[in-house]
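Q: What would this chain look like folded?
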Amino acid sequence: MVLAILTATGRIPTGLPPRAAWAAAGVDCDDLTGGLLALGIHPVGWSLPTVTVVTIPPRELAHCTWPEPPQPGARVFVTENPSVVTAAADLGNGAPARLLCTVGTPSALEVDAIGRLAGAGWQVAVRADFDQAGLHHVASLLAGIPSAVPWRMTAADYLSSLSSPAHGRTQLDTAALPATAWDPNLHQAMTESGCAAYEESLIDQLLDDLLKQ
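A: My prediction, written as structure tokens:
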């Protein structure tokens, strides 16, 4: 409610993630809660079993160093939803999944930390839900990490999501959909359909990508 009032009165910009909005209002947030969920990729100096999922808090993300990739072109995938991380971790058997999860809107600090992966030589592939927020998430990551690529975020992937048994029928506010510069046909397809589609609709394909990386 407070953030809504501050936004409505013009005291803080619109569209900021909660932590950034509070910071714009002059409120210092702690640096221990939030952050990125991580599976199979951790800062240098961390020693964890392959299938362990951990939260890397903002305090660590602000300065952590990432390991170099095992070979050129090795990928780290970035998702929006913890359910994708859960499914990847459940693969077990030491699966080579390297996955980060923003758990919603990525903060500027998180985008910067993921960007340092690209700086260390990793290919960063990003995705989110096919809805207004998800498109904003992907756009912010691609803008903040110029070498990053979309991960199954094309019009074809969206249409495939609509045909999945896991697909719901959540309606979109099509007038509020942001542009999808990485694939203009995606914006058109979502506008014509008028339905959101969520990451779980493509879970089999996503897990297959993670196993092949």
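The radius of gyration is 17 Å.
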